[in-house]
């Protein structure tokens, strides 16, 4: 990987020297089908780049990662590939003012989801191709200048097997066996795209009258593997797509600029989705083979709208370098939820954002690797790791705060001016701040410094003083920050006061929206109010902070959380309680108890599923070891009780069924799961479809109650790509030393598995109930990670370093081993050290939580 890196300084130098007029890229992927000849399977890539040089006679380089280069021609002169190509770069000497570079290469198909990924469907043997490039993998497919600020128009052509269809960013036509695609607008290399294969393809169209009297027509397409076609609800995908296009046209006042709009759901995808203009790619898990809750449909709609927002934020206007990645990802994350609430049936999406997305941000912002939203990205490895909870969810949260700060109208008008001034160009932080300052009349520099250029999350705690008559004499908000990141920020917040009604409901009776700044802010507007039972700082979730509670409020939640009637307020309280648990301020057993008592009263299905996930995490990481068995039994009993009491056929029943399977512990639990699989037992309304069958099989396999024969029989029922991933995970989950050794070898010592099967094997390998069985791999982990990082692609390296860290060996010895590795590898790549430091921090946090829980048991 180090040879594949590109530094920010190198990119700046090249951008100052070169400008690109256009690319012609011809790919021949007929080699994707048929027998390979024993050597790595490759395809032909011929690229012509027309570019200018500001300093004739200067030298530069083009990017290409390929097994071999057949020919290189610069300005009509043939160059020796062996002299100019080193495996990652093509040296370009003595450049003219105007240049033409032609590179004929043999590029490798990918099995890691980076570059041109080749997938063979085990169900029917069909081959499917797609590309994925962010941040810098288009150089695995064609020669280019791989950095976001060297934009250019692209013309692609693809020669594919006769029975295939091919797609790219522009509209395509087939002639003489070659798919030729319309030239794109100027775009960055990382958002070019090719998809090819026997995909199932559905079409629709969108039209809209524009202010100038013309009509905007956008051809729509959606595709998936043929094996998934029976499950493909393209009508719902198109519905959300059209709603999103209407919403963004109304708010952005800039017509969608990239012609057609295809959406491809592709196999073995590393990301949620990618915003390639005209051809967005998604992971195919967004096509649901079994019954899922509305939370899954809401999540899919959010991703569709997130990627659509990128057509403007990121594709039309692109950051100069990855330091300003937030200019696209934070905006898309915010706009995805903003549009979901404003345009679709998912009008509660801000609840999901407050409960789920912000939890991701809070975790990332408390890691030792936390960084400002506008980050210091030194190179491509830094860039890859910064697609994180800060860049996405914290950035989106801060934009929500910005909307509260400047007003929605000023914010959207700023966006409209930003698009019109910078269309097809590249921008930095100041370009956006200048238009927001224009439209809002506010000085954005101080806000930007405090919110975008500093790291860390503040905590806001209410302080209530009552007078002799039991009314609020003074209510203040205390703001705190970690010593490592001491910045106290201005917060626009709503503060809600809650009391129980005569019927027992916990409802808000007073609210004030105000500014909180500095260590202590007195909220004068609430003086004289009736004494509250609960004070909710950041009611309505306007700002980005960790909510804390005064003693009275926390006592109220312990006894009456389920009586809180407002779903967003309830979600915020649950999130705050989870943060208290992670911060070792609330014993994990108390959080588990709250889930057992009140989760059944949670109406929002997404929040319920998040609570179940948090309860599982509390059991695995934060409960005192001596109480784990008891906690696990209590959760399993509670899940089964709720499963039996849930409304037959409801989403809540399905969620409790999955949670019961994940917490099953005793023989009675396993017996019920086996009976449900065999059809000898039933729970009224519960349809045990294929996906639920696999969910029941994994805990059976992990506890030795399902063997290889059982899993082979299940794969025979579901002999598909999805079934294979499930089977691989279940096989690796079995409680056997030989199984663990085989799984370790498949991931660590071999490169035979695809990215999806590496992910599945790691997920099965690390079972929380198998700590002793996994103990021998703690030492082995530290022996292999430097080699893994050096030898594998960055995606696989990240999967292995994160996924195999011995977090289940949760004791001081693992911390000591981690510290020893970090000390001995001070010169390791910064990205690798970051991953290890993050894992160490999670483990240290878990140990603090366990100590807190243990004290609660004895005190």
Tell me briefly what this model is.
The chain is α+β, with helices and mostly antiparallel strands and 859 residues long. The strands form seven sheets. Strands 5-4-7-2-1-10-13-12 form an eight-stranded mixed beta sheet.
Provide key terms for this protein.
single chain; eight-stranded mixed sheet; 28 helices; 43% helix; 28 strands; five-stranded mixed sheet; 859 residues; alpha+beta
Describe the structure.
This protein is of the alpha+beta class and 859 residues long. It is 43% helix and 20% strand. It contains 28 helices and 28 strands. The strands form seven sheets. Strands 5-4-7-2-1-10-13-12 form an eight-stranded mixed β-sheet. Strands 15-16-17-19-18 form a five-stranded mixed β-sheet, covered by helices on one side. Strands 8-9-14-11 form a four-stranded antiparallel β-sheet, with no helix packed on it. β12 and β13 (178-181) form a beta hairpin. α18 packs antiparallel against α19. The model has no long low-confidence stretch (mean pLDDT 96).
